[in-house]
Amino acid sequence: MTGNGNPGDSIDVAFVGRANIDLTIRVPHRSRPGRTAIGSALSASAGGKSLNQAIATARRGGRAALIANVGADAWGQQIAAALTDAGVDTRHVRRIPDTTTGAAIIEVTPDGESYITLALSPATELTAHDIHHATAGLATRAVVAQLDLPPEPVTALLGHRRAPVVIGNLVPHPNLDPAVLRHLDVLVVNQHEAAAILHTSTENPLDAATALQRLGPHIVVVTAGPHGAAYTHPHGSGTYPAPTVAVVDTTGAGDAFLGSLALDLARHTPLPDAITTAVHAGSHTAQHAGAHIAHHTP
């Protein structure tokens, strides 16, 4: 797939991960065993964490690129159109023939909470070859890696420094060597993901960030939804509360946070200031339906 940008163009942030179609339905409550919940009409939109993050960066005026595979089907075309419309570089979004694009089934309850089930398309999973091909001539200030990808592409990406700032996101794949986390400049996870990695839960996101930092990342950021975010780095730690907002849909809030954070870190914004802006970006997105909104966030 060809797309925005020229081969020599520099990128602020390259996002490595998945793109899929979000199949979203708003429900009065989640269905119970033996019962049927009747919800809204089904909507189909471009989604996937890496895609959402790339669009969030682009909507803030950053130069974003996505490295991902999709099927050569109608959903793949819809994803390509959404990325192009948002101004994301799609040179390394590959459309694979005779393959169905992955989908996420999303239920959104009246409190704005989202419940997501991902229907993976195995044939679209990134490979180590995809990573080597995409990053060989890519000039980027920061790379964001989706750590729940198969180990081979993640190891290929993290084993050789591809950018001044390397950011990891999500719970690592169970077969990923934990030692590769030492290659991360920044690890960003939410409280639930932190608990899964640490095999223990804590109500204090700062405690979770401190424990995760012992695994090797230079900086750790733990998001806590309506409670904001906590961070720790070698020179200190802190928290930033989230503003009180009317929540409509939390689906893309974490991705808006990370897209904003990655752009600011790529541009050498001090971490506390980047966290502050990212929290507001996530809160802003949570006030709208869908994973991303159609205009620039602050």
Task: List strands and helices in order, with pairings.
Elements: E1 10-16, E2 20-26, E3 43-47, H1 49-59, E4 64-71, H2 74-86, E5 93-96, E6 103-108, E7 114-119, H3 128-135, E8 139-146, H4 151-158, E9 165-169, E10 186-190, H5 191-198, H6 205-213, E11 219-223, E12 229-233, E13 236-240, H7 253-266, H8 271-286
Parallel strand pairs: 1-4, 1-8, 2-6, 4-5, 8-9, 9-10, 10-11
Antiparallel strand pairs: 2-3, 6-7, 11-12, 12-13
Please state the oligomeric state of the protein chains shown. Answer: single chain
Uncertain residue segments: none
Q: What structural category characterises the helix and strand content?
A: alpha/beta
State the end-to-end distance.
31 Å
Largest sheet: 9 strands, mixed
The gross shape turns out to be globular
Question: How does this structure look, described?
Answer:
It is a single chain. With 298 residues, the protein is α/β, with parallel strands linked by helices. The chain has a single domain (10-30, 41-286), classed as Ribokinase (UDP-N-acetylmuramoyl-L-alanine:D-glutamate ligase), CATH 3.40.1190.20. It contains 8 helices and 13 strands. The protein has helices at 49-59, 74-86, 128-135, 151-158, 191-198, 205-213, 253-266, 271-286, and strands at residues 10-16, 20-26, 43-47, 64-71, 93-96, 103-108, 114-119, 139-146, 165-169, 186-190, 219-223, 229-233, 236-240. The strands form 2 sheets. Strands 5-4-1-8-9-10-11-12-13 form a 9-stranded mixed beta sheet, with helices on both faces. The longest helix is centred in the last third of the chain and has 16 residues, at 271-286. It starts with 9 loop residues before the first strand and ends in a 12-residue tail after the last helix.
